[in-house]
Amino acid sequence: MENSQNETELSEFLCFLEKEDFNYFNSERTNALLNLYKLNKPKVGKGDIKTMKKLWEIIAREMSNKYKITVSPAKFENKYKVLERAYKKFVENNNKKKGRGRKEFVYENIFNEIFDKKMAAQKYRIVVALTMKMCFFYCKNGTSHIVYIMATPRPSSSRQKQFVYKDFDGDSEVDFDSDDSIKDRDYVESESETSLSDEGQRTIIQLKRLWDKLKRHRKGDLAEERRELMTTGGGSPPPLPPPQPEIDNLLPHLEFEINNKDDSDGIILNGNAEGTKKYQQGAVNREREKEHLEELHKVRLEEANYKKEAARLVMLQEKEK
């Protein structure tokens, strides 16, 4: 009797849930989760979705409203990460196997859409590197290796760029995603980025132009020396002009600019020379204006004196009358 009474009292606090409520992620809900992720992932960092935490909160709220279930955002995030790892493993295995060795993945199509842009970017970089026949170098365990990129793109997350590199002899593969450190992988990635840019080519062109300009100036100086030797018949150079003490005494007080022809582009020196010329021309104009005003003042003083004398003579003539 006591046991039956206890069971009756406990039954008041028991509640029975259907089995379906515990099955959060069936096929329909999983597809809905992936579609919401694909739709909202590009919006992260823009507008209201600032972080990934906010993204999973939005997905959890929409899933709860649609299917009338209460699931935390962390469970949706964990479910997606499990599916993402399974998809990456599926792609990696299928790239290594052929025919009957390949497996199927239920959500392959939607994950292909999620990783479409990243895979397209990998394919583009691989094609560019292969068409330009680029090879890169890296150092591992004190040994230098020459590597090239294999055309086997794989999906990657936002924090990790996944490429497979292979030694030139073809005996061993170097997978920078599994064994090597991030530093080695970033070194090879940076080498590939800089090698595909045109900065080095532009610098070489500038140096060639500067070298040609220096050679032309040097040839001009040699031609000038040769002309001086021809005028003297191979003898001593022509004598220097006689000293002029008056000019020599004025030289320390004069400002002049040396015309340097060995500049790389001629922009800076020409600009300074032009500015100096304008400043000197302005100073000359100011001096001329000052002299003109002084002469005009003298003329007006003489005119005032003349009028004063004329008025005095008129007054004397009137007094005599």
Question: Concise description?
Answer:
The protein is mainly α and 321 residues long. It has eleven helices and four strands. The protein is 62% helix and 6% strand.
What does this structure look like?
This protein is mainly alpha-helical and 321 residues long. Strands 1-2-3-4 form a four-stranded antiparallel β-sheet. Among the domains are: 17-106, no CATH class; 115-197, Alpha-Beta Plaits (2-Layer Sandwich), CATH 3.30.70; 200-233. It contains eleven helices and four strands, in the order αααααααββββαααα. Helix 3 packs antiparallel against helix 4 (52-67) and helix 4 (52-67) crosses helix 5. Strand 1 and strand 2 (143-149) form a beta hairpin.
Provide the succession of SSEs: HHHHHHHEEEEHHHH
Which percent range describes the beta-strand content? 5-15%
**Backbone CA Rg:** 45 Å
Binned, the helix content reads: 55-70%
Globally, the shape reads: elongated
Distance from N terminus to C terminus (CA atoms, Å) equals 166 Å
* Biggest sheet features: 4 strands, antiparallel
DSSP strand tally = 4
Low-pLDDT windows of residues: 15-21, 119-139, 148-183, 192-196, 260-271
Strand order of the largest sheet: 1-2-3-4
Average pLDDT: 67
Oligomer: single chain
